[in-house]
Amino acid sequence: MEAMMAEEIRAEMVANVWKIVAKPGDQIAEGDTIVILESMKMEIPVIAEEEGTLTSIEVAEGDVVQEGDLIAVLD
User: Is-contact 54 34, C-beta < 8 A?
Assistant: First the structure.
């Protein structure tokens, strides 16, 4: 039996947090959008790579994230 590990969702680029789509406690499916980032007038969805329960959102709308910054945690 394999233990579930929390998945950390991190920023892949420097961007502004434009919109938070999901909230803690939401059931997330693989491919669901968690937040939408904005960079150079482009909207970039941050999607879950696996399913789980969203345990936390570590950013707020309007925040600037750097590459590697923690955005959310799935359990």
Answer: yes
What one-character-per-residue DSSP string does 39-75 give? ETTEEEEEE-SS-EEEEEE---TT-EE-TT-EEEEE-
Closest CA to 71 of 24, 26, 29: 24
Convert the pLDDT of each residue in 51-68 to its tens digit: 999 999 999 999 999 999
Helix (H) or strand (E) segment spanning residue 16 = strand 15-20
Q: Which two tokens stand for residue 15?
A: 């961007």
The Cβ of residue 54 has, within 10 Å, a number of other Cβ atoms equal to: 20
> Residue 62 and residue 46: Cα distance in Å, rounded?
15
pTM metric for this prediction? 0.88
Q: What's the N-to-C CA distance of the chain in angstroms?
A: 16
